[in-house]
Amino acid sequence: MYVTGDLHGYIDIGKLNSKRFSINRELSKDDFVIIAGDFGLVWDNKNDEIYWRKWLARKNFSTLFIDGNHENFQLLNTYPVECWNGGKVHRINESIIHLMRGQIFTIKGYKIFTFGGAQSHDKEYRKENVNWWPEEMPSLEEYNEGIKNLERHNWEVDFVVTHMCPTSTLHTLNESKHSGIHKDQLSDYFEQIQERLSYKKWYFGHFHRDMELPNKQKLIYKSIELLPTEQS
Questions:
Q1: To 5 degrees, how large is the angle CA 160–CA 80–CA 9?
Q2: Where is the Calcineurin-like phosphoesterase domain (predicted)?
Q3: Which of 95, 139, 196, 211 has its CA 20 to 30 A from that of 60?
């Protein structure tokens, strides 16, 4: 099982080609690559997008993704919700699956907490329901579901995959001049979770860099990181 950062549709999909991700040749559909938001291949269903979804589906691995802020949420939410490995998903096709917000999945023996979404700070330059959707930020129901599921698992998971990061991590990024984004309701929500949650590693995207951070967190973008596939 692997995790990587934003795809932005087919803009950054090249990192998953067989030359750059050569281990693909040794994988099967029972192996997974998790995209940490801004998947962007459920956007307008035009020919080029359909081509790249088929390209991705032909890879030996299966693709899992959380949503970022640059998604067509109206289109994404037309897919039926089903249960998969303990959590709610949208199945885009047989090997591309959207992991919904506030869910805990048991995959390869590990518990993974997923929570997509983030605020677009360029939304004043975007058009609502054309290239920006209000659903990029979570609803109260989604926030509550995340807490409920964490309580159900006694606040213990193995991995966390989000698009945004906790507020304290945002401060670290701002101090290192890797971000100029201010805290918001979602980062504060993650801060509260971070204070209570036991986890081995927390991955997040959104900021288009690869960087190890305090509190067992990693900002991930270009790199593709292997996760353990068996319980120790």
A1: 60
A2: 2-209
A3: 211
Q: Any alpha helices (H) in the chain, and if so which ranges?
A: 47-57, 73-76, 140-152, 167-175, 185-196
Categorise residue 142: left if φ over 0, alpha if ψ from -120 to 50, beta otherwise: alpha
Spell out the long-range contacts of 206-212 with Cβ–Cβ below 8 A and sequence spacing 24 or more. 206/6, 206/36, 206/37, 206/38, 206/68, 206/69, 206/118, 206/163, 206/164, 206/165, 207/173, 207/178, 207/179, 207/181, 208/5, 208/6, 209/178, 210/5, 211/173, 211/176, 211/178
Structure tokens at 215: 């509190």
4, 119, 134, 152 from 23: Cα distances, Å? 14, 34, 38, 36
Q: Read off the tokens for 209.
A: 């860099």
- For residue range 100-141, list pLDDT tens digits in order: 999 999 999 999 999 999 999 887 788 888 888 899 999 999
pTM over 0.85: yes
